Amino acid sequence: MLDAGCGTGENALHVASLGLSVLGVDVAETALAIAREKAKDRRIEVAFAAVDAFQLERLGRMFETVLDCGLFHTFDGDERTRYVASLASVTKHDGTLYVLCFSDDGPDTGPHPISQEELRTVFNPSSGWNVVAIEPDRIQTRYHDHGASAWFATIKRI
Scanning 58, 68, 90, 131, which has its CA 20 to 30 A from the CA of 22? Predict the structure, then answer.
């Protein structure tokens, strides 16, 4: 599994603790250092690498499952298209991408909220994707006592 924009690694560490092979990538070296230290302290085998999300093909690997928890909503316009193409370059055909992003629906939206339509527009068949489901969810943040409104999208690579 690939954890794109893994930050300090909590999601990658959780999945790896279940016995799955995980690579967490991020551009923030400081966050990756924290993630590696957590992995060492918890004795969890997981890999972390400094990689630009717009250049995932540099990994030279393909993944059946990709997780994006809080990265997609940081991009605007053309960046989203570039990021989606980068994800496609490392996701196997019929692989699954899970995206958790701030939602535009609800009173507790986070910064850069995304609409369902925006998700469907960028993850479309012409870009190699099929949105299977978009469900309401919450993202835990430091600034929202009960989390911020979010979308949890399940997207298949076609």
Answer: 131
Q: Compute how many other C-beta atoms are within 10 angstroms of the C-beta atom of residue 17.
A: 15
Asked if residue 51 lies in contact with residue 76, where contact means CB atoms within 8 angstroms, the answer is no
Please state whether the predicted TM-score (pTM) of the whole model is above 0.90. Answer: yes
Instruction: Please name the residue that has the structure tokens 């409104």.
Output: 149
| CA atoms of 157 and 144, how far apart (whole Å) | 33
Interval 130-156: pLDDT, tens: 999 999 999 887 777 788 899 999 999
Say which CATH class 2-157 falls into: alpha beta
Burial class (CB in 10 A: 0-12, 13-18, 19+), 134: buried
**Measuring CA to CA, how many Å separate 86 from each of 42, 52, 56, 79, 80?**
31, 10, 6, 10, 10
